[in-house]
Amino acid sequence: MKTVKIPSEGYGSNCWLVISGDEFVIIDPSSALEVMLARIKQRGLHIENLKYVLLTHGHFDHITGADEIRDVSSAPLAVHELDADCLYDPDKNQYKYFFREDLVLKPAEILLRDGDEIKFGTEKLRVLHTPGHTKGSVCYISDTAVYSGDTLFDLGVGRTDLYGGSPSELNESLKKLMKLNPELELYPGHGSLSTMQKQFDYNPYLKGI
Questions:
Q1: Which of 16, 42, 87, 121 lies at a CB distance of 3.0 to 4.6 Å from 27, suitable for a disulfide?
Q2: 185-194 tens-digit pLDDT
């Protein structure tokens, strides 16, 4: 499995292209459509082999390209059921809070729950429900990687003062992540990639958990 970062819009969020053989998924489509398509082409992939568009949560800076990439592919979009209404509610996706305008997208085709599996190529991603940043935040876990959205960053964690945030729920989610294999690579929703081992050793938010 290969993971490629796709340059995103001006929100500082990470969009990940995750490849297994000829098939691939896009996690958090915050990039412009032409940028996503260019990176797909650069990797020798075909848009018809996009299996899923996956969201780690429903905030605007992770979903802005979701409708466009769905419009040019047959890929369904998956989001945790507790963040499903963020796609079409600009108060909940926070776009209205920051920009005083509406961001309204199409509903998701797939509503996820904890423990679900996303299969593509020869790989699978396990859905780990990690509320705290939002009610429906999830991490996608493979045998080698964690795609953590805004639950866990390199030496940081997501904020809890926006809609759906909860410090106590985030703390419980971090406890779940502390049980993961330290050898897993960490692909967060913002910032640089890292490893779980580094977070166990140095992330101040994981100390004492």
A1: 16
A2: 999 999 999 9
